[in-house]
Specification:
The protein is of the alpha+beta class. The protein contains 6 helices and 7 strands; from the N terminus they run E-H-H-H-E-E-E-H-E-H-E-E-H.
């Protein structure tokens, strides 16, 4: 049984592990090998601890009773204001062995719930153009609304933005048993 809940500082090490593992598996072949191999769970641990402390309630985790943290997500105010979305899902990563079980759907719904509770009306997520997760966001009702180029590890990459204009409508359909 996987539980979805608000992240706590004690979850930071698990989030760091999932962050590094999912980046290495998801972005292999899309990003240079060396930076992916150089990702550090210890550096990610420090970053996630600081973020959880600075912005409590904006990170959620999926916890398996045996494996611990198997997925996580984070959200907040949209980082760019050129588009008509006030909220943004910054991260949503699920370990490969836990994909296809509805955990991503539950995390996304939880993140939308966090944003809605904070007064955000809409949300956007950016995904590397080659990332298979783009199909997940379309399946979840996101509209493809923008394309941008970014630099990651010195490599120019194309990202696609998927948006939801009405979080109220999306969260109304969410699982009423959410613990977020």
């Amino acid at each position: 049984m996987v539980t979805i809940r608000t992240a706590k500082t004690m979850d930071a090490a698990g989030i760091a592990r999932v962050h590094v593992d999912t980046w290495r598996t998801t972005y292999a072949g899309m990003l240079p090998d060396r930076p992916l191999l150089d990702l550090s769970q210890q550096r990610q641990l420090r970053s996630w601890l600081a973020l959880i402390r600075a912005e409590p309630g904006r990170q959620i985790v999926a916890i398996d009773g045996t494996a611990g943290v198997v997925a996580f997500g984070s959200c907040g105010r949209a980082r760019r204001s050129q588009l008509p979305y006030d909220g943004e899902v910054f991260t949503l990563y699920v370990l490969p062995d836990y994909q296809g079980q509805g955990i991503g759907r539950r995390l996304l719904a939880g993140l939308f719930g966090v944003l809605a509770k904070e007064g955000f009306r809409s949300a956007l997520v950016w995904v590397l153009a080659g990332n298979p997760a783009r199909f997940f966001y379309r399946f979840m009702g996101g509209s493809w609304v923008a394309v941008r180029e970014e630099s990651l590890f010195g490599t120019r990459v194309e990202e696609h933005g998927y948006g939801w204009l009405d979080l109220g409508a999306v969260t109304a359909k969410s699982d009423p048993g959410s613990t977020i």
